[in-house]
Specification:
Rossmann fold; 7 strands; alpha/beta; 9 helices; 7-stranded parallel β-sheet
Length: 257
């Protein structure tokens, strides 16, 4: 018996086997959930290939979280896939232009690129949640992913700002949807060697920081600890936890120099 037995979960942003979202989908299935995954554009081809490694192979949805039309029709799309109740949503979506918004370009980034990053990386948590809300059960759980945005990081720039907005948006979701039994939490992971991380100029320095300072150590090639935390938050084992930022970073957040 798994901690997600009988639950249906939507996991966004599944790309490669190295992605946190992929590992979440894998563990959620092992814990008894029915999992659906989503992506869009060119990344959708990656998703369709990689999910064949999961058992059972999950339904893949073509979903652009910046499309009002697709979001408006998402509940109907899910119903057409036989989903009568949705118990959890994993928001693993982020984007910032690596040429203008990352890698030290912070002071010169044009607003158009800032706007796109905030829309895709932060606002979409709210818009996706509201698109799924018609199908939420009595104790639905929304979980987002961040790289601790309480502080600044080398090269992270406007993605850091967008993640700070994401963290705040989750708290407001917790405030407004809590009376309906919906929980909203964020997992702050240490650096994981995903496609998204590799797109950040200079991101290799994060691994060096964690190697030196994380009390429990940190394996950037292993998304399992982060995924387990996400799955735990999707389960009924955190029934009174919402608006929280859960660190899964080997303890680095707790240290100074």
């Amino acid at each position: 018996m798994g901690i997600l037995d009988g639950k249906t979960i939507l996991v966004t942003g599944v790309t490669m086997t190295s992605s946190i979202a992929y590992k979440v989908a894998e563990i959620a299935q092992q814990e008894g959930a029915r999992v659906l995954v989503s992506n869009f554009g060119r990344a959708l081809n990656l998703t369709n290939r990689v999910v064949t490694r999961l058992d059972p192979v999950p339904t893949v949805l073509d979903l652009d979280v910046t499309s009002e039309d697709q979001l408006a029709g998402l509940a109907d799309v899910l119903r057409a896939e036989g989903v009568e109740r949705l118990d959890g949503v994993v928001h693993s979506i982020a984007f910032a232009n690596p040429e203008t918004a990352l890698g030290g370009a912070f002071l010169e980034t044009p607003f158009g690129d800032v706007s796109a990053s905030v829309h895709i990386s932060a606002y979409s948590l709210v818009s996706l949640t509201m698109a799924c809300k018609p199908l939420f059960g009595e104790s639905a759980s929304v979980v987002g992913m961040t790289f601790d945005a309480r502080v600044s990081w080398p090269a992270y720039d406007w993605m850091g700002v967008s993640k700070a907005a994401l963290e705040s948006a989750s708290r407001y979701l917790a405030r407004y949807l809590g009376p309906e039994g919906v929980r909203s939490n964020i997992v702050a992971a240490g650096p994981v060697d995903t496609i998204a991380k590799k797109a950040i100029p200079g991101s290799h320095s994060f691994n060096d920081i964690w190697a030196q300072r994380a009390p429990l150590g940190w394996d950037a090639a292993d998304a399992t600890p982060t995924a387990k935390a996400v799955v735990a938050l999707l389960s009924d084992w955190f029934p009174a936890t919402t608006g929280e930022l859960i660190h899964v970073d080997g303890g680095l957040h707790s240290t100074g120099a």
